[in-house]
# Entry
Amino acid sequence: MSEQAEMSEQGKVTWIGKPVPRREDRPLTAGAGRYMADIEMPGMLYMVVLRSPQAHAKIVSIDTDAARAMPGVHAVYTAADLPEELKPFPVIWRPPVLKDDSIAALASDRVRNVGEEVAVVVADTQQIAEDARELIRVKYERLPANVDPIKALEPDSPRIRDEWDDNVAALFPFRNGDVDAAFAEAAHVVDGHFKINRHAAMPMETRGVVASWDALTETLTFWSMSQAASLLRTELAKSLDLPDNAIRVMTPNVGGAFGAKWDRYAEDLLACVATRRLGRPVKWMEDRREHFQSTVHAREQIQDWEMALDEDGRILGVRGRAVADLGSCVPSSGIGTQWVTGNTIPNQYKFENYSADIIAVLTNKARAGSYRGFGGPESNFPMERLMDKAAKELGVDPAELRFRNQIQPEDMPYPTATGMAVYDTGDYPGALRRALEMVGYEKLREEQPKLREQGIYRGLGIGCYVHCTGFGPSAMLGMINYDTSGYEGARIRIDPGGKVTVYTGMIPLGQGTETSLAQIAADSFGIDMDDVRVVWGDTSQTPYTGFGSGGSRSNLAMTAVMNAAEQLKAKMIRIAAHTLEASPDDVEFADGHLSVRGVPDSGLTMPEVARIAYLAHSLPEGEEPMLQTQQVFDPPGFGWAYGCHVGVVDVDIQTGMMDWKRYVIVDDCGPMVNPLIVRGQIEGGVAQGIGGALLEEMVYDEAGQPMTSSFMDYLMPTFHDVPDYEIDHLVSPSPHIRGGFKGMGESGVMAPAAVVANAIVDALAPFGIEVDELPITPNVLWRKLRDAGAFEDGRSAASVG
Amino acid sequence: MKPAQFALDTPQSASEALALLSDHGDSAKVIAGGQSLVPMLNFRLVTPERLIDINGLEDLAYIRENDGVLAIGAMTRQQEIEASPVIAAAAPLLAEATREIAHPSIRNRGTVGGSLLHNDPSAEYPVTLLCLGAEVEVASVRGNRTIPVSDLILPWFSTTLEPDELLLEIRVPVAGESTSQAFEELARRKGDFALAAVAVALTFGASGAIEKAAIAGTAGRCAQRLTEAERALTGEVPTDSVVGAVAAAAETEIQPVGDIHADEDYRRHLVALMTRRALAKAIGDRAGSKED
Amino acid sequence: MTGERKISLRVNGRQHELEVEPRLSLADALRNELGYTGTHLGCEHGMCGACTVWLDGKSVRSCLMLAALADGAEVTTIEGLAPDGDSQHPLQAAFSKHHALQCGFCTPGMIMAAADLLQQNPHPSEEEVVDWMGGNICRCTGYRAIVRAVMDVAESGAAPPASDPEPEPSSVG
# Structure
């Protein structure tokens, strides 16, 4: 066996739960991965996009003559050249409160953000296409731009959509219990004004597509890195007036996505139109500057929250408002992320009264869509800051205040204060307790005052989180007006030689899909992982999936694989029983071997049964030949993962820079299929959370010009910026999922912003500063310290080293 | 993100390069390591008609010490400066600052001359070479001239180099026995351009007083000598209160520029702080070396 | 001359003669002209490190290098790092063992940077690894798994020492 397996006590091979190194790694470490940019075809043409340099302007005229005349240029398209059948992409998540909007392929009369698509050039080489793009002349008439989402709410602010009567795309109200009564009787009220910074998923591979039209068969092969291939196929079919079955969406290796590749994009349509018109394969690869301007941003919200507590520090209610900046149009996910923010404010805490207005507003910035965590980090930050503010107000340790309010294991299943979520399982206080124990909380608290005397400002920050996983129940998606399904399918074929092939609709984005599903299938049949192949990335072969990869849905695919394996095992048992002349009830299936109970040596191997099934010379009556099945799993409920992070930082008050001392993580995603992969997902998520908290921000100037269009100005965390992660796990299986697995792809990113802010505020407690705006830059911290008088009494830079 | 078309010349000698510069200086760019120029080409922020590649001028890559002068060829790679025992002894400040430049794979290719002439306000070489009182020798078909670095660098990525001139050599006075040098900078992430940087070179007298102080700083606009700070230190024994006065002078005279990463007040404060820290390091090193 | 110019590159021990526009980057020459697609382009402005290759034995960013300026050079890419076709460089195995890659896009650049460190300094401290690798961005792993992988190889001493980076005289253009 090439991969590590262990024998269980029953002598059975088991793969689930083992830190199996990934089968994806060998080619990827050898440089043999095949990413979009690596796909080349004979006769291929290259498309580039001319984008708006204006944040908000009327298009007066476009002159493409010089570009069209350049040798090597095959086509230049503007909106005026587009065929009528090129329909814009609809929004997928459309609650009734959301105004109509869609994603158009090219701007026709008006541009609404820097980076909006205005024209495309298709040429023999990338270089020629870029040269010709320079020759297109567009005349703009500038309009005033909206950059600040709060100002965009004002009645006289410049309008983004003329057909709307304001800039508000949606106001979604959450109302549960009697929140005003809760505040009326409160002993304590704490509040905060929070800013969640605009940042982005920023995968290392930019977007790209290859589209190839075959005029003879009238079929389109579309190489895409979309996280939602099936959904994209259906939408392309609608937009291009083709039947679904004329489109084959293929997925190469994808260099990271994190939500950014879930949205639908103009270039998808434009490349298809170009290949249909020109009859040659067309490739478009986004460059990094375009990625900054045109791939979805995320997270930006301005929030005001109040929390009411009784004398003992028990939460009575929470109320507030979140204003989300969607950018210049409603993304494919609609107001999904913002809805999740409103729906996860209660976090791990028990209370009943809740009121929130979630307001989504358009501005002249890049559109804001999905990013790992999908609205969760945006609720975790304010709620966990409020917990620390409340602890301060009550003079209680922040850990203790959390213990007083956490939902207990025996409360599960627990309907939360939003009235729209039911937590399934979990030991929230257990996770907090374990994290405090790992970090040595009490000892650190004792050391803090002594360290301060030495000029070391050390702080501890706690962040508890929940994470809605297995984003699936289709009926639930329907109830919240999500215009797609949530189930996940798996097809298994056992070939005549007895080897197993699993077909999945999951799109691997780096999360180890092949390895995990092979582990599941190998365990289901009790065979070696090497005997399982996993096929993905081809809508002509793989099962339909309405949602695609994202929403921490691997557990749904795993359940589908298990169910499909059960079907085939049952069939093999029937065939073996028939061959061995035994009752199916007496045939056992263990370690890929079928035998009559009590006569282990009597049996048949999987290859032997497979041969019988394919030969079909002697099958039980009514049994179909061959061994293949497809199973679809639509979960009955969400699996809620959760956990607790505790960070320890030292703040240099002279510079406002901080240093990681410790970072402790206790996570519960139910039973782990592959602890190595789980660890990787958590660590990567935490790093992204830290990046968003300390470094990353998409900055626009007042005219709507992006100030961060390169990695020089948009600062990604790198090796120096992350802590050593100390990780432990609790295990609370989900009742909704076979195997009890919860998703875990997004857990890591939920709490870091709160952890960082809480730790910094704790470190700087002697100065009494609060940190409610992200990112927390050294400049901002230094200014807060200065304004708090930290440098008086001989503490200024000029007098103390 | 591909560059616009340009012509490429690959002269194999300085005189060939000078002839090309004489003919095309106004429309050409010289490419040395290319670590700053190529990104600008890729973004099409610069679109020169012609690039003159001077990587063939191998005799411009050297580090020599002669008669109290350290001479560094313009094409010397930053990695060679970082690793050179000659530099470590003769201009430890330069070695220290070089380690702060970007990352190893950039320093493998980037040259000292290219970085100095690119003159990014936040770059390490302009501020350190200014502090060290370095001068450069430049050539054109019209002849050679020597320019003190203080006269070479201008704000906003500009220099006084003429379009037809080529940088040949950087000359730095060798650090004496009784000198101590130090460099401090602060960047958002390690390897990024500095929000503020300060270089100091001190010469100690027998009494422990500082005979000569050179202090240079930068905070987003241009490297500048901090002459008031130097004056506050010269002739003084560097007590805490003297160092405080020096930092205060630096804070006052630095000309900061704010951007999305740091505002002017913060940069000004950082220059004071970096001054303190650099002085502490230099004074500490001096004390340490005396104990040896 | 704006036209094509002839250059020779020795890539992973194989000699290539090619004609390139002056503006073609070494990364594009390796990927598009010669098919070494293991070298990835993540930013094309020298900030992410995904395109790291070795030029005459030292790591450089191939997006910041014009192909014409590499004329006559010896280039090593991820495809040529392992001593022979079937085997793995110890870092390649260690990256898998420690789950130091997820999407794999930054991985070739990471491995080329780390291998350069280990050939120069076979037993770096963890701090030295972090300092050396700081210019390579990974969005998936959170970096510590990469540090663990490099340290594993550093501590086991499995990395091959620096081979003679001097190109053969005949290959100098």
Observations:
- Chain A has 20 helices and 32 strands.
